[in-house]
Amino acid sequence: MARKKTIEAIENEISKVKSDMSKLQNRYNKLAEKLEDLQKQKRRIEADTIMEAYLKSGKNFDEIMTFLSP
Fold first, then answer.
1. Contact 20, 27 (CB under 8 A)
2. Both ends of the chain: CA-CA distance in Å?
3. What is residue 28's three-state secondary structure?
4. What pTM was estimated for this model as a whole?
5. Number of helices and strands in the chain (H, E)
């Protein structure tokens, strides 16, 4: 016959699960911040690349915007 868990054992398990969840939430938050930072870096590099191409093209702003407009 299987032994029943005590209230104290269940409370200890609940406490451990809450602690594990808190650690995972902290890890998730750090990874989310890192992802956001990497995406900002990517957009900055893309913007720099576009600006370099614009400056090299010899086109004026209106010509570029006409080309980019749908």
1. no
2. 73
3. helix
4. 0.69
5. 2, 0
